[in-house]
Fold this protein.
Amino acid sequence: YQRRVHGWEDFKKIPLHMGTLIHYKLSFERADRDHNGRIDIMELGEWAQGLGMRNITFEELKRMIREVDANHNGKVDFWEFLAIQLYISMQLQSTVDIAEFVKFLNQSYG
């Protein structure tokens, strides 16, 4: 049984190493083809296909953006990208709500 993380104080206890941050920043920059600091739906699709998600649909991409778009600009900013990457790589699905985690990272660091 894992305890469900709810508060931002709990989020602050999730370790983040500088090497991890740099790795995801470089990944973000590769995905951000036009270098405007945001990943749009086309760039997200290219990035996903590069990861082997060949059959991902436009609707799935829109849903992905909606789930992490904390500032509601229709694009994925770096902190939103970082949140989803950490959420997946640290296997936080069973303990952390993705929307709350993205909101935390955006307000804490973005």
User: Anything to note?
Assistant: The two ends are 32 Å apart (CA to CA). The chain has six helices and two strands. The chain has a mean pLDDT of 80.
